[in-house]
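Whiteboard transcription, Tuesday session. T.W. wrote the structure tokens on the left side:
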């Protein structure tokens, strides 16, 4: 890892969290009321610790979002509204991946394809450039990279190690070898090495196994991961057990084993005949806190205890994410952190 360019870990100091308000023109339309309540809870939790940059599609959406948030007694001085078009609200995958450089910040604008062409993504693919043109960021340059990559597909320890899944990157780039993918990821993200997980999958996930639903760095030597202890769950038991074994076999740069924190398995949640992708691994690290999903499940409290053990000294705030997984994601998928200094 170079001394002048670095991909900071999520637990490092942040300026703000980037979000986009759901509205009738997004896929949330059929259940807008439910998801708005989750958004209000999410913004309320974030603004206790830092600022929120909230994308809004037009003046009417801004006025409505402002009124809903203010009525919840949220500190509106910590919310900045950004008028910009977007197809969807999953900003983990469409927001900027930010590197620190000797001169400031480099905002990486990877190609966003709607998770491999599954959904329309023209507006989302232009989001980073539009925000930069609006003057949102300071001491920064935008680097457009013609390589399909979503923020939810990658985890960094902040010290040059990247964690990702073979299934997702292989789906996006079927003609590239692992060595070629290693080279592209290390060069664009200023990483020294890439750790690959070849197992791990959640039914209902349409991202092709994003790592942020499966395994997350909690420190340079610690990984929190979603486990499954239900041997009767034919879809997940073997896959997640094999993923746990893969993580146990990974080594830190100095040759040591990673400290492992296994998250409990929630009961299946269905929407009609469709099983939803409920994962506790989709947590968001803030300044002095971790926000994590809750699913109204007996395992919620045990999951909170695991996250608390992995992040000592941080407040753990659980948010009901059942409305979010209806659209196959949770709170980390909705958000993108902006490192300290990028907003001036």
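and on the right, the sequence the group agreed on:
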């Amino acid at each position: 890892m170079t001394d002048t360019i670095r991909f900071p870990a999520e637990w490092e100091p942040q300026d703000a969290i980037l979000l986009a308000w759901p509205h009738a023109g997004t896929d949330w339309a059929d259940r807008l009321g439910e998801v708005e309540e989750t958004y209000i809870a999410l913004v309320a939790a974030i603004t206790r610790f830092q600022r929120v940059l909230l994308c809004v599609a037009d003046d009417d959406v801004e006025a409505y979002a402002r009124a809903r948030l203010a009525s919840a007694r949220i500190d509106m001085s910590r919310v900045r509204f950004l008028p910009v078009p977007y197809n969807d609200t999953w900003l983990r995958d469409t927001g900027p991946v930010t590197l620190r450089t000797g001169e400031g910040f480099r905002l990486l604008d990877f190609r966003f394809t709607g998770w491999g062409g599954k959904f329309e993504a023209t507006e989302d693919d232009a989001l980073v450039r539009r925000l930069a043109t609006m003057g949102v960021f300071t001491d920064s340059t935008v680097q457009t990279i013609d390589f399909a990559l979503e923020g939810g597909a990658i985890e960094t320890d902040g010290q040059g190690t990247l964690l990702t899944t073979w299934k997702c990157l292989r789906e996006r780039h079927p003609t590239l070898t692992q060595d070629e993918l290693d080279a592209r990821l290390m060069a664009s993200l200023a990483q020294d090495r890439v750790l690959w997980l070849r197992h791990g999958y959640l039914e209902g996930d349409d991202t092709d196994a994003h790592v942020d639903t499966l395994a997350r760095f909690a420190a340079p030597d610690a990984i929190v991961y979603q486990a499954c202890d239900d041997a009767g769950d034919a879809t997940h038991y073997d896959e997640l057990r094999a993923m746990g074994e893969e993580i146990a076999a990974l080594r830190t740069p100095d040759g040591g084993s990673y400290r492992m924190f296994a998250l409990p398995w929630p009961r299946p949640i269905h929407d009609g005949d469709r099983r939803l992708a409920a994962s506790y691994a989709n947590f968001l690290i803030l300044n002095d806190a971790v926000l994590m999903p809750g699913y109204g499940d007996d395992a919620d409290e045990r999951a909170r205890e695991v996250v608390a053990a992995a992040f000592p000294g941080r407040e753990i705030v659980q948010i009901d994410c059942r409305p979010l997984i209806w659209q196959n994601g949770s709170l980390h998928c909705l958000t993108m952190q902006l490192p300290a200094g990028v907003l001036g």
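Someone added at the bottom: The chain has one domain: 14-339.
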